[in-house]
Design goal:
- Residues 6-125 form the VOC domain.
- Pfam families: Glyoxalase.
- It comes from Neobacillus piezotolerans.
- InterPro entries: Glyas_Bleomycin-R_OHBP_Dase (IPR029068), Glyas_Fos-R_dOase_dom (IPR004360), VOC_core (IPR037523).
- With 132 residues, the chain is of the alpha/beta class.
- The protein has a single domain (9-130), classed as 2,3-Dihydroxybiphenyl 1,2-Dioxygenase, domain 1, CATH 3.10.180.
- It contains two helices and eight strands.
- It has helices spanning 17-27, 75-87, and strands at 9-14, 30-34, 38-43, 46-52, 68-72, 92-99, 107-113, 119-125.
- A four-stranded mixed sheet has the order 1-4-3-2, with helices on one face.
């Protein structure tokens, strides 16, 4: 498991700072800093920095292999994230689905797409031992 004295950092492109802030705040992320060329968020306890770079936006994103997100250890928190995304009308790239049904690595997952076509996956494994 992860030590609590570490924070994962991810930097991704965005095309517009205002729409990026709107999306991530609706997702429940706290805006930590804003500059003329980037915004930094508390993304479920980790750090996501969205750098203004409209020329680097993927026009046709695919789920695999490029996405990031959160793996919940608590099913209630996963369900709350799904409800939060639905209530705030965030755009789904992939609705709720079950992967690897009937296998030990079975999990539920959904994908959101942010305004810069970055894909975010949220998932919950029924067997916590399959998280890693």
């Amino acid at each position: 498991m992860r030590d609590t004295n570490k924070v994962f950092h991810l930097a991704i492109p965005c095309k517009d700072l205002d729409e990026t802030v709107d999306f991530y705040e609706k997702l429940g992320c706290r805006l930590a800093r804003r500059y003329h060329d980037r915004v930094t968020f508390d993304f479920f306890g980790d750090q996501v920095v969205c750098h203004l770079n409209p020329d680097k936006i993927d026009p046709a994103p695919k789920m695999y292999p490029r996405h990031f997100g959160v793996t919940f250890l608590n099913r209630e928190e996963f369900d709350q994230a799904l409800e939060h995304a639905t209530t705030n009308e965030l755009p789904f790239f992939q609705e709720l689905m079950v992967r690897f049904a009937g296998k030990i690595e079975e999990h539920v997952t959904f994908f959101l797409i942010d305004p810069a076509n970055n894909l975010l996956e949220f998932k919950y494994y029924h067997d916590e031992g399959m998280v890693y």
